[in-house]
Amino acid sequence: MRHRIFAGTVALALTVGPAAFATVPPPSGSFDTPLTEFYRLAGGEVHVAVSGVGTQEGDHVFEINVPGEPLAAWLYWAGSTRETGAVDPAVTLSGGALVQPEDLYGYEVGRRYTVFADETNTAGEVVMKADVPVYAFQQGVNVFVISNFNERDPTTLLRIYRQQYGVAMVVAYQVPAGVGDREVIALEGADISNYDRYYRMPGYQDQTHSEVICFDFQPLACDQVGILSIAAGGVMEDVHPVPGTTRIAYGSPEQTWFTTTSTTPPASLLGTTQLLEANKFTNSQFGFRGMQIGIFSANVPLTQGSTHACFQHEMLPKMRTNEFAQNFVTFAATLEYDRACGTGTPTTGTCELAMDMSVDPLEVPAPPVVDCDGPLQEVRVEYTGQGCIASEHQQAFDAKCSGNAQFREPVTVELYQKNGALIGTRSNVMLGDLLTFNAAEAGLDRLGKVEWRVIDPDTGELLETVEAKTECDDELVLGDQFGSFLLVGFTSMSGTTSTLETTTTLTYTVTNNGTADSGEVVVTDDLFGEVGRISNLAPGEQAVLTHTATTWKTQTYDAVADGSADCQATGTVTQTFLPPPVVPDEDDALEGQFCEDGLEDITVAYTGEPCTTMTQDQNGKVVCEGDALFTDGVQITVLDKKGRVILEQPNVMIGDQVTVHYYDVPPKPESANKPEKRKREKKHKKRLPGDLVFRVSIAATGEVLGEVRIHTSCSEPLSPGDRFGPVDVVSFTSHR
Q: What's this model's pTM, rounded to 2 decimal places?
């Protein structure tokens, strides 16, 4: 079989090995099927693309970039020989340039031959392969959907076929305008290694690491850079940290060694040659208890005169799991290089990446103002860890904050009603987590005045307390910050819901503006972590990755694109949330309010706080005794400094307000017989006494819990928001 490039000047020599058409019989006593060459394509500007997905039940989507004419393509997957059911005969492929879904029938290209009795569920991997028609591809990025993997019978819920672990696609293509003399070599099989089983079962006949896997070619005329691509999968049930990062990966930790030689390849490459990359095959997009695929491409140095290029997977120690079988299966590997040593397409040069980022929507309008009178049933907040200094809200004296979470994580967050009733507890809270609290958790219909507590889970230390009133008519605005908590959404008792949460799509466009391939490109967002991988970008190629997230505040997103060919690019974009409108209310009238020439009236809010809660500038004029102990249903009695009762208000709850007017002051008894004094009182009747005592007591028993005396003649400073133990000043009217 021969192919011609479009220019018609260079021939493509294609050879296909027998493994492409029939199952390779195992050598005597073999553990698995070693990777062997099945495809070789030479002449012109030829390349190979590799992509794939992990497999669970259902449909799965993946992309593959084919920037040229496809010449041949294959699909690989791995399954277990011990699963209930017959051999999985076919998969369904849709997308790309296909006008309708197409069933692809597979055949076996390799397997593990040694299976032990205690491996009843997951051992004995087998690699299947299906030919993909070239008309399934269009030039550029193709998006495919893989269907009917791990299907279950709808009645019994048992898998119809064998359980499968990973799907890889390999495509050989040529660039029409190319005049080089490149060669692509492809291997396939079922190279299986099993570190965990080997070390836990003495005498277990297993393959700890992979075999040394080699490509063979004619002696190279020069030093150059080739591209090695690998597709692997298997039962990789392991949880481990990725070195140098904060990520936790689900997969089989391994690293790959590489070398070239002109003699017989060595029996082992471990620790003696070039380490390509550590921990490549980590958690994939569809990883589920290790059922995943690893795709890796890297630029590799090819030495003049060499006739073999070899690699070997080294399995690293795992954390123990409850499963014995943790197989790592290599399906296929490809190598591409330039036989012409740069006389055609350059094989050396510099990779130069650029990345553009965009976000949709770029600007988020404020949510509409909702009719939300009354108390709330549910609130949704973000834990920011910023502490009290970050507070920015409209509640003034109704909101209080003490302590500092100091960006601590993880923490425990508890929400209480002001009367001490626990509404809910959230454990293992991290910075940026959204927390939802509903009054129904405590059997209540409303939240009322609440207190958040931030607690160190290791020591039990109370780091921060935040109080707020959760009523829509009490200046509660989306985007308000109460200490370490940002208000993101709420639901009223009437069912009205308002939220800042918005579905956002970030786009990362990566372009290679250099003269050499990028190798595998990993795009990592500072906030979201890894958002995707690109198998390779040739010079001039571009790829687009997207990530969808829920956002609720102005945020700058920074990302890095790292190419394995030692090239990097950064990008940044900012999404802006317009501030919600502030609804004017009576507190706006408090600005500029001064105490002058005595007061005609004063309104205070009952807080139940102890005398140690003081924020005022009256120095020694204030006298406070006792402790209201945050008691609800108390009686507030207002007296002058001589003990005359001016006002009694029963059944006062935390947060209730008490207003006393000048006309509430009773006349002095002696005034009836002293006309001159009556005349003097008439002149000053619109003023309250110069000192007022607010006494908190239990009406039923008369027990006095506490009292505070406030100077109200205006000879001492007095302002809305001043705190006097059990009461806070809300507002007042000056005589002048």
A: 0.45
